[in-house]
Amino acid sequence: MSLGVVDFLDERFEVRRVFREFAEHPVPAHVNWLYCFGGITFLCFMIQAVTGVLLAFYYQPTTANAYTSVLHIMDDIPFGWLLRSIHSWTANIMIIMVIFHMLRVFFHAAYRPPRELNWLTGVILFFVTVTFGFSGYLLPMNQLSYWATKVGTEIAGAMPLIGGYIQAFLLGGEKIADPTLTRFYAIHVVILPIVISALLVAHFFMIRKQGIADPL
Ligand code: HEM
Q1: Of 91, 144, 146, 198, whose CB count within 10 A is highest?
Q2: Does the beta carbon of 42 lie inside 6 Å of ligand 1?
Q3: Residues 16, 10 contacting (CB under 8 angstroms)
Q4: Which residues touch 155 (CB under 8 Å, ≥6 apart)?
């Protein structure tokens, strides 16, 4: 952005002051590379959001077309293979990074008061991240997707009392078919992105408000 545009916006909305308040925050002296995992997890999420939106331009969520639309992305779309590979690799890296982040927070005992609510928000964030992976796994509709989803939904179905309802909700019928794919797609591209965005806003707000925990 040219300086003229920044001056124009600054005169009207004080963008320089707002940016300084947002970005210029002292980092405590004890912070080291172990504290990077939360940020890397967030970077992974942003990569997933961008590559996911681009994949959605070509992906078709029906049992008849899903697999061929993925082949089309891989073989015909310029850099489609790269886009899909980045989305798939980053999904795995995000799960590894969120586990490292959680271990860092745990071993530094950063869940202690007053950060209990942020730990709880984090636990939900962890499940949301894993559910992103599980719901995305079915989408290519290949053999691996089918059997992983069959095992996953049957595990959910084995839960006492509510298992049957969860399984029926996920499958949208008796077995894996079009309604299942539609539901997994809706969960993957609509519900989870909304939920994770809200949780991240809360997570970052609490970190800003409470600061990074002191060392033990
Ligand atoms: C999408 C997932 C997540 C993202 C993007 C994320 C991001 C971050 C970032 C950037 C920080 C500040 C720097 C740092 O300590 O790394 C942080 C701090 C924190 N996170 Fe997460 N986080 C996620 C999941 C989790 C999980 C799974 C937990 C625990 C169950 C958790 C608990 C916390 C706590 C308690 C803090 C404060 C740490 C302190 O004050 O030292 N977060 N998070």
Answers
A1: 91
A2: yes
A3: yes
A4: none
Whether 146 is in a domain gets the answer: yes
Counting ligand 1 atoms within 8 A of each CB, the residue from 25, 47, 125 with the most, and so the one to mutate, is 125
Q: So what's the pLDDT on residue 39?
A: 98
The percent of residues above 70 in pLDDT, for the chain, comes to 99
- The residue contributing the CA closest to ligand 1 atom 1 is 125
User: 103-149, pLDDT tens digit by residue?
Assistant: 999 999 999 999 999 999 999 999 999 999 999 999 999 999 999 99
In 3D space, the residue among 137, 128, 160, 80 whose CA is nearest the CA of residue 70 turns out to be: 80
121 lines ligand 1 (CB under 6 A): no
Measured between alpha carbons, how far is 87 from 37 in angstroms, rounded to an integer? 19
Q: What is the pTM of this model?
A: 0.93
The response to whether residue 100 sits with its C-beta less than 6 Å from ligand 1 reads no
Count how many domains the chain has: 1
Instruction: Provide the CATH number for the domain around residue 129.
Output: 1.20.810.10
Output the CA 149–ligand 1 centroid distance in Å.
29
Q: Which domain holds residue 81?
A: 35-210
Q: Enumerate residue ranges in the chain where pLDDT < 50.
A: none
Instruction: With respect to residue 168, please indicate whether it lies within any of the assigned structural domains.
Output: yes
